[in-house]
Amino acid sequence: MLLGSIFDAKELADKAVSARREDMMDTALGKALFDIREEELVSLYTMESERMLIAAVRDGDLSRILDEQGRIRYYNNRMRAPLAARTKRQFEYEVVALVTIATRAAVDGGLDIDTAFSLSDLYLQRIDNHKTPQELEEIARHAIRTFCEKVAECKMEAMGGCSPRTQRAIKYIRAHLHYPVTLEEVSEYVKINPKYLSRSFLKETGLKFTEFIQRERIKEACVLLKTTNMPCIEIANTLSFSSQSYFIKVFSEVVGSTPQKYRKEGVFPLKLESRRSQGDEKKDTWF
Q1: Considering the domain 161-265 in this protein, what is its CATH number?
Q2: Which residues contact 273 (CB under 8 A, 6 or more apart)?
Q3: Which of 1, 114, 220, 239 minimizes the number of CB atoms within 10 Å of its CB?
Q4: pLDDT digit string, tens, across residues 199-216
Q5: Which residues, at least 6 apart from 113, have a Cβ–Cβ distance to it below 8 Å?
């Protein structure tokens, strides 16, 4: 008899086994949570390091993530968290994720989407064919360095020959593609007369102010069409086009394809000749 109740021996044994199992489960759960907390405390990987990588690639500034020996600081931090048990396949997945992040950041930084995805495909093939962990680390470092350098080259070409004020205006426009942008707003930001800024844009970029904004928005639209499932009307609204039909019209004029066809068939943007001042034969690539 126990506390006024009568139990047979088998029932008591079953209850004892059940209690031990519950204790074991509680102990295992507590240990797992402890191990997770411990790993988080010693892990060198943080979201801040990922933001640093994205910013470095997007701005074409490799120096942000180099250590004193000129090695990629972010990559080492991510791959060498002390308690992160890692299989060969997990190791590969992490490098694939790294290349994916760098690809998107490069496109956001102005690298044309075809070049960015061609580079991405190249590095993914190298990942599939690697033979050693050291080779895998080198692939990741090389990918980040290449994306940074390509974005830097792209930015230099895009602003080549532009005055400092026009360069500031271009940076402002690219940072506000999702909002209505006016000549007066940008001219106020760069502290210059609107008419003078308009003439400067045509002279230095070969494009009218409004044409330049359209070009930048279409570049962003190409990225969204390639990397998301957003419908055309949502992309048009996101990029501040007045209507879906106007977005399709502008897209077709710039790219030479409708948005739907571009997304479905992977039609690549065309090279277009910008209207520069007379006597200047240089051609620009819109994407």
Answers
A1: 1.10.10.60
A2: 283, 284
A3: 1
A4: 988 888 888 999 999 998
A5: 107, 219, 222, 223, 226, 287
